[in-house]
Amino acid sequence: MAKTQRAWYSGMLTTEDWWAVWLGLTFFGLGLLTLAGIDLVGWIAYPKKWVFSLPDGAIAKKIVTIDKAFYALGGKYSLTAKDTYKALGPIGSILVTYVVFTVATTIGAYFQKWDVKRYVVGWTIIFFLTYFVWFIGHHAFFSASVVDLKKSHFPQMFTLSLGGGASFILALIVGLIIGNFFKPLARYLSEAAKPEWFIKTAIVFLGVKVGYLPIKAVLQTAHLGSKGAQIGHEMANLTFDLFTAGAAATVVAYLIFWPGVYSISRLIFKLPRKTAAVLASAISICGVSAAVATGGAVRARPVVSIMVSALVVVYAVIELVILPGVFTHVWPGTSDPLVAGSAMGMAVKTDGADAAAGELLDEFMRTKVEQETNGQVVWMSGVITTSAVMTKIWIDMFIGLWAFILALVWVYKIEKHEGDRVPFSEVWFRFPKFVLGYFAAWFIYLGIFFGPGQAGAADGMSVLKAAKAGAVPVEKGMRKLFFMLTFMSLGIITDFKKLAEAQFGKMVWVYFVALFLFIIPVAVIIAYLFHHGMQIPNMASLAGATIN
């Protein structure tokens, strides 16, 4: 069967995939300028957890008043323009963020031959609606955890403790309301509601996060070192152990979880191959990012990735509510806190929900062990959270490799017909190009760490601090903004009437069965095999140590 010959650079200026690369790498590159003392990314507006007014005795630490609900990240992290970005204030930072991303995304819309006028109007509505939902989702009732309440000296109060996950689910709900009850508006906004473009761009920003991880770890270790040589040495060893043991999660996710979930989808629920592949990646690897990457690799219908992404968000919130308590009070319990943390990293399929669940688990377990030992055992905060996040990061790092492997399988096995000659170039055309941006951002930050940063040596610390000033606004502010835009857009373009046609009901049950009867139990077992016996240093045994 003859195939149309295409140049290897085909679509570089006209496809969504490539424009995720250009958009992501543009802001990644601007972030690198902090190494030269130029901060051009600190304007990004980011939310804080807030209340209308602070109760008596409370302090504005983790929770602030409504007038400070947003801030420019550069006002906190910039080394050269902190005062400038602070002066923007909440409204100013949001407006600058809007102008910058309106210009950047409109250029992409123009080259992709979209209706630019309609795009700008739709983008404006979606952008400000997204920021409004982001604001609502960060009210303390939705987002504040017991840790936040404690650090801000709040009285005991009921909160949903959903962290950033509250904003994601609210964005999805608002989008779904528009998409199903205000259909004329949804059709108009569809020109700007581009969840695949937004999530692919967010994945490029995720590459910054992965590459920045060792820089962050070194800077945190320097801070911990002030607590004394003993705790610094123990924490350094523990960090290394967590890093190496976390590699096991990658083997589990790709060699055990994926084939298992794929088999459940195909053999029990009789789903089509492409749908099963997207579901398997989402449930067994890393949720929305893996679903989109896999959908691109196997050329699944866009609606499949969209519906699977919606399921990922819903189930992640369920896990966030249930798993910290179960892991603390049932099993693994406080006897194996790092087993529980690692299992959390393998089980919860979104970065935000994983970090939030890890934070809750950290608080629950530290409180329980102190009560059980009458204060004879005290763990430093954040170690259990780190075990959850580090395991998740290992999994995140291999999204691109897995997408490439699946592209090979689909081209040379699944869709290869007798007599066909499939050129190797077809693998390139199927390969999700945004992953190139992800890897570029990751490896360049690793190069900074091992090169001018001297892997954390004293002479390289100034370089690492400068790199942090440019990395945080991108990997934290821009990445999460584009995740928010993704969830809002997912809802807007999702029509419930069409879900039945795509076997959505079966997907719900596949996700439930695979997650609760396969993924979570196996994750705990594997985490036990690789993390059992690893202990958190006991701060109570160190005379004069400061615990935080």
From TrEMBL:
One of its GO terms (cellular component) is plasma membrane. The chain crosses the membrane at residues 20-46, 87-111, 123-147, 159-182, 236-257, 277-298, 305-327, 393-414, 435-457, 508-530. The keyword Cell membrane applies. It comes from the Bacteria. It is found in: Cell membrane. Keywords: Cell membrane, Membrane, Transmembrane, Transmembrane helix. The keyword Transmembrane applies. InterPro entries: UPF0324_pro. Pfam families: Cons_hypoth698 (PF03601). It is a multi-pass membrane protein. Its main location: membrane. Belongs to the UPF0324 family. This is Sulfate exporter family transporter. It comes from Desulfolithobacter dissulfuricans.
